[in-house]
Amino acid sequence: MPVTMSDVARAAGVSVMTVSNVLAGRKRVGEETRRRVLAAVDDLGYELNLTARHLRAGRTDTVALVVPRFDHPYFGELAARLARRLDRSGRHLVVEQSGASREGELEALTLARLHLYDGVLLSVVGMTPDDVARLRTTVPVVLLGEQDMPDRFDQVRMDNVEGARLATAHLLATGARRIAAVGGSTSGRGMTMVRTLGWRRAHEESGLPIDDALVVPCDVDLAGGRRAIRQLVAEGTPFDAVFAFTDTLATGVLAGLAEAGLRVPDDVQVVGFDNLDSSEFLVPGLTTVDPGHEAMADHALRLLDRLIDRAPDGDRGTAVVPEHVTGPVSLVVRGTTRPAA
Amino acid sequence: MPVTMSDVARAAGVSVMTVSNVLAGRKRVGEETRRRVLAAVDDLGYELNLTARHLRAGRTDTVALVVPRFDHPYFGELAARLARRLDRSGRHLVVEQSGASREGELEALTLARLHLYDGVLLSVVGMTPDDVARLRTTVPVVLLGEQDMPDRFDQVRMDNVEGARLATAHLLATGARRIAAVGGSTSGRGMTMVRTLGWRRAHEESGLPIDDALVVPCDVDLAGGRRAIRQLVAEGTPFDAVFAFTDTLATGVLAGLAEAGLRVPDDVQVVGFDNLDSSEFLVPGLTTVDPGHEAMADHALRLLDRLIDRAPDGDRGTAVVPEHVTGPVSLVVRGTTRPAA
DNA sequence: CTGTTAGCGCGTTCAG
DNA sequence: CTGAACGCGCTAACAG
């Protein structure tokens, strides 16, 4: 039987409300009363029940970030940035995993869970635009992800085409002629498609031919990058550079190249995408596309807060027009590419 | 004004309880009634309020993992492993950050938040044993962390001394004679101290002298590892190997060594600790201590579930005796060390 | 198989 | 500045 507020009130000889006021630091409470209450709290080992407070207050001062996987550094870094901002406004961030392991049935459950938070930043990777369109929720939601989603929701993403174009153009400028697109796809959707598009565009702008044999689809993880290189080498497909679609892939690529006895950047140049914290520390340092992490975090929370502020009034009349924000990208040149010719 | 269960009940011409039963899939409900309820739910856009359910049910089927920082790969990987297990038993994992940014005042708030969960896995890094001893909570808590904590709580950790001894002994066996302990300390507490102890012990077992100039305290992050090497080089302290106290530190160390023109493993050998997913993919592959991640996750949840199961009865009589579990470690040999002489 | 009664623990009314 | 009622949305019990 847990200790409740009224237990404390009885012990301190005051009313429940007084206890509540003392604990929430709300109204002014007499110094002596206050001490009595705190003593009783300490004495009984009373612990505030946030669930009850949330039910009553209708808000939780907590925002959730839902990511596909916990063990992906990109999302860890994102979470840390968001948490820093939310802390500043006295709120909390909790991170949940949407999983790649759970089926559609769980989507419903996930949605129910969203109600535990004032707002949700939903990182969509696996879901299709159709899945998202089917989402029915009154919870403030901002989408994060590279695939264009239904415009009923706010969405923040990076300029993938431009980033991929920059990366590829840089490789072309430093003398590369056969650039493998690791993580690419000739038919897919989402991140994979838009970055492949940027890779194509850079080739077109240079008037260079495009060889689809250089597009290597793979799992977007460390092992995937390494396997992609193994495959290229096994096939005997010639290449003098790799544009890896994420820094994680690039890390796997570097391992694969080393394994194959190919030197970076002398034999093969490499560019990644994401500018993870660790990319600077690889040997050699990874040239990569920086998606403007801080700006993205700012946008995401701005859009979310817009929705949260509006929520109490209800939707009628003042409906917020959803925005799709695309952040600018830039290239960070390090040691996996050669100086421009 | 959100749609509530009784709105749905009215619309469907049934009682609230029936709606509840349909939605929770609890008792059997007539097929037609069931359809009417679901139709009303869909019609009104009803969304379950989990907060209310939690308040009423007294549990949330959710476990929290509290980590020092979101952007630390070690914790991301830990979270993923825990989530996998909890999903299997139909529960959820949420991750919160304890922050290094928030002061002691927030400790209280953190404690209140713990009540939102059935149990909490608390990763302690910054807190001292005294801080922990002061924790007053009835929430099931299992501590994770390398510093020995008051035995009022369950705790899971790795065999740090043995891991550090293994790492150092391996370096000695492969010919190293001056092994820098990056992340070490001659006076600290916690992880830093126990791993330094293992480093010492290996030296003692080999009868080799210990030079405290080789103990380099630093921030436990990527930049810290690099800075440690810069410092050693700047001081002119000779060293032919590095035992980095975490793989993240080791990654920074490798960057620092490259910067200084030192080859790995020819000029300097390196061993890390943690066996992160990415460590296998560094070039060269990082030799490191594997703390038996899976076993640790198993232990942590076993201890937590023991507490959760007991909770409903109250503590009297059946008090669970807290356990301190230390998991076995092993050495993973890769390219940053030379073959044994 | 469905409805009624009661209350989870807190906070927003209003009086005093 | 403090106290007493009522209700947030849901579900465990028991009726019917």
Automatic annotation (TrEMBL), chains A, B:
Q: Which UniProt keywords apply?
A: DNA-binding, Transcription, Transcription regulation
> Residue ranges of the HTH lacI-type domain?
3-57
Q: Does the keyword Transcription apply?
A: yes
SMART domains named in the record: HTH_LACI
Q: Would you tell me the protein name for this molecule?
A: Transcriptional regulator, LacI family
Which molecular-function annotations from GO does this UniProt entry contain? Answer: DNA-binding transcription factor activity; transcription cis-regulatory region binding
